[in-house]
Design goal:
The chain is an alpha/beta fold. It has helices spanning about 15-30, 50-60, 70-75, 90-100, 115-125, 140-150, 180-185, 190-205, and strands spanning about 5-15, 35-45, 65, 80, 100-105, 130, 160-165, 210-215, 220-225, 225-230, 230-235, 240, 250-255, 260-265, 275-280. It folds into 2 domains: about 5-135, NAD(P)-binding Rossmann-like Domain (Rossmann fold); about 140-280, 2-Layer Sandwich (Dihydrodipicolinate Reductase, domain 2). It has 8 helices and 15 strands. It starts with 5 loop residues before the first strand and ends with a strand.
Length: about 280
């Protein structure tokens, strides 16, 4: 029947910082867009039963699980949305693909290129739809810039400049959280925020031909701690641990179409809680 929305049943693995953002977006989608697909928030998953139950009730999900495998096994789920720490993405996505579920994965996609290739092979083998959540592509300003470029309205693009600036770990006493551990996050500013700048460049300008860059870790050790939501953390321990990812990255790139790009991503830009800027 024309005009009747089709329900798309969502199972979300994870529930904290980005889980809250995704839940909000799902609930807003029918309000902002005339979309024939209406998300149904079926089940949310997390290891801490008290915390995930609270998140389920607060964010409007029908139920919760403490084992993500049970979510994937359910017959009433169409899409698996992965908003867990980076080192878990590949295992969950591959299992979801093998169960015939469509997949949304938060960025960065995986810890390594090899993991990413395995994820791609799994979704291709099982014929499911898949995407990585580079949300900035769909902001009105970026969509308009894309149209101007594609229509030739601004002529040839010679330069692309991008910087993503944060300052939330400048204090040396900021705890050593999972975002600062390579075995969990894969990389630091490069994969966490620089990934957005790289994706926008590829979307607007095209593929890279070659590049050269440098990474820097300014604070080598921090007190052990944990994230408490958003960009906040707590750490009461006097025990110190090694920071194994970059605090900042800068690189220059040559695009296949001849344009020159300059990129910077840092968590040490004082006065910038979360600033993403690109220009052509």
């Amino acid at each position: 029947m024309v005009g009747v929305n089709k329900k798309v049943r969502i199972g979300m693995i994870g529930y904290q910082f980005m889980g809250k953002a995704h839940s909000h977006a799902y609930r807003d989608l029918p309000f902002y867009f005339d979309n024939p697909l209406e998300p149904e928030l079926v089940v949310i998953s997390g290891r801490n039963v008290e915390a995930v139950k609270e998140a389920q009730e607060k964010m409007g999900w029908q139920g919760y699980e403490t084992d993500w495998r049970k979510v994937i096994e359910r017959d009433d789920i169409d899409v698996i949305d992965i908003v867990t720490p980076n080192h878990t993405h590949a295992e969950i996505a591959i299992a979801a693909a093998e169960a015939g579920k469509h997949i949304i994965t938060e960025k960065p996609l995986a810890l390594t290129v090899e993991e990413a290739r395995q994820m791609l092979q799994a979704v291709q083998k099982n014929g499911v739809k898949h995407m990585i959540c580079h949300n900035y592509r769909f902001s009105p300003a970026v969509q308009y810039a894309k149209k101007l470029i594609d229509d030739g309205r601004i002529g040839r693009v010679y330069h692309y400049r991008a910087n993503y600036l944060q300052d939330f770990i400048m204090d040396p006493s900021f705890p050593l959280v999972w975002r600062l551990k390579k075995e969990v996050s894969g990389s630091g500013a490069l994969g966490d925020i620089g990934a957005h700048s790289i994706d926008l460049a590829r979307f607007l300008i095209g593929e890279f031909k070659e590049l050269t860059g440098i990474t820097k870790t300014f604070i080598k050790e921090r007190p052990i701690g944990e994230m408490t939501g958003g960009l906040s953390a707590k750490g009461d321990s006097t025990e110190m641990g090694e920071v194994t990812v970059d605090d900042a990255v800068a690189f220059i790139a040559h695009f296949e179409n001849g344009a020159l790009g300059t990129f910077e991503a840092t968590r040490f830009a004082g006065g910038n809680r979360n600033k993403n800027k690109s220009c052509k």
